[in-house]
Design goal:
The protein is α+β, with helices and mostly antiparallel strands. The chain folds into 4 domains: about 5-185, no CATH class; about 185-250, no CATH class; about 265-305 and about 420-425, no CATH class; about 320-410, no CATH class. Helices cover about 45% and strands about 15% of the residues. The strands form 6 sheets. The chain has a 4-stranded antiparallel sheet with strand order 6-5-15-7. The chain has a 3-stranded antiparallel sheet with strand order 12-13-14, covered by helices on one side. It is globular and about 65 Å long. The N and C termini lie far apart (about 55 Å).
């Protein structure tokens, strides 16, 4: 049943607001707008933005409740509007909803549009970094936090939260060095436009100093070798970090002996390798990032090549009798799925799922394997969701209450247009 508001249902009220806020009349020209009014107008617009954030947080809270009991779609699907909204916005919306649900007074400030979104996001990020016990203690400061969330600049607000957390952790007997080390973290992820990777990291003083000095030393050595280099300081640092990591990965930390270097998995097709580019050329990494054909050729000079046959029915040619999928099987699956077929998560974040449990058949065959995100994997194994895979690899995903959540059509092999072999290096 639709919830009734003074102006109609929620949907009707929102439709009315959207219609009344058609931006066309507000696209004013500089010559007809009094400069002295712009500041006041901007304050009103910012208030509208905060109220919109409040509506999103409220809807997110309700959608999460429905998803938790299996009565609605996954919360990520709702927030992404079926892929129309980027992942960072979805993560921010989830964080705000968590703040609203945990902090009553802060939640009230969010709902009435008084809370500054940047401060709410700051609080959400801090919640993701603390333990359950520390989070419960932080909720005890709901009132003081609510007093500041509406007017503090985000830098001031962040420092205030950090002081609160430090006080809580001191009460728990955690030493400063342990806190620093526990807060350290790093990530490597593909760029959104699939044109490279982003490395981010934060380290405590001890390891941070070692890394800082190692990079400085490597930069100096690079400058000695390159002479008057045209590389910018940032480019030099990028090369230094890359060289340090690759060189370190080539040494076994247990024995100190050299071991095979860093592995780079790429996909290309036989026709391209034999005679050059064509309309169906494949030249990419397992994460779906394009590579120049010259780069592929260089990498394949010193590579292990695996032949993978793909067919119009999306079948490939590898099987095994133990639980873990082989490198060849993973490469074969990659020719079918550049990302999670359900959520779109990149290949580097996928896990290989046995559609029919391994315990039932005691074998690992490609027709029974599906690469899916860890989120979907968790829902299927621990969340009561069910996933089926048809012979043509059509996917049906069911909610815990048995209703069909979605159907994903069969994939198309990436080299289907050329009907050639793909080579994984």
């Amino acid at each position: 049943m639709a919830q009734e508001l003074p102006g109609g249902t929620v949907a009707e009220v929102l439709d009315h607001l959207i219609a009344s806020l058609d931006p066309a009349p507000y696209m004013v020209r500089a010559e007809v707008l009094d400069p002295g009014t712009i500041g006041d107008l901007m304050i009103k617009v910012r208030r509208l933005q905060r109220l919109a954030h409040a509506i999103v947080a409220s809807l997110t809270e309700v959608a999460a409740q429905h998803a938790q009991i299996g009565a609605g779609p996954m919360i990520e699907q709702v927030l992404s509007s079926d892929g129309a909204v980027d992942k960072s916005t979805v993560v921010a919306d989830l964080g705000r909803a968590q703040v609203v649900s945990l902090f009553p007074e802060v939640g009230a400030a969010v709902r009435n549009g008084a809370a500054l979104p940047a401060n709410v996001d700051c609080l959400a990020r801090q919640l993701s970094k603390v333990s359950e016990t520390e989070r419960a203690s932080l909720v005890g400061f709901d009132g003081p936090i609510a007093e500041r969330v509406t007017h503090h600049q985000v830098g001031t607000f962040r420092k205030y939260l950090q002081r609160l957390i430090n006080t809580i952790r001191k009460d728990h007997g955690i030493g400063a060095s342990e806190r620093e080390r526990a807060a350290a973290g790093a990530s490597v992820s593909a760029k959104r436009d699939r044109t490279g990777y982003v490395l981010r990291g934060e380290w405590e003083t001890e390891r941070g100093t070692a890394i800082y000095n190692a990079v400085r030393t490597e930069r100096r050595e690079l400058l000695k070798r390159l002479g008057a280099s045209e590389l910018t300081p940032d480019q030099l640092t990028a090369q230094a970090v890359s060289d340090l990591i690759a060189r370190g990965a080539a040494v076994n930390p247990s024995t100190g002996q050299f071991r095979p270097g860093v592995v780079i998995n790429v996909l290309t097709d036989y026709r391209t390798m034999a005679s050059g580019p064509h309309p169906g050329t494949i030249a990419e990494t397992f994460d779906g990032q394009n590579l120049a054909l010259e780069t592929i050729g260089r990498l394949c000079c010193d590579a292990v090549l695996r032949k993978l046959d793909t067919a119009p029915d999306a079948h490939v040619n590898a099987s095994r009798t133990v639980r873990t999928a082989t490198v060849s099987q993973r490469a074969a699956l990659r020719t079918l799925y550049p990302c999670c077929p359900i959520t779109g998560a990149p290949w580097s974040m996928l896990e290989i799922h046995h559609v029919i449990p391994y315990e039932t058949r005691r074998e690992t065959r490609l027709p029974n394997l599906l690469p899916i995100s860890s989120r979907i994997h968790h829902l299927v194994h621990e969340g009561g969701w069910k996933l089926t895979l048809s012979p043509d690899r059509t996917i049906h995903l069911y909610r815990p209450n048995g209703t069909l959540d979605r159907t994903v059509p069969p994939p198309t092999a990436i080299n289907l247009s050329s009907a050639d072999h793909a080579a994984a290096a």
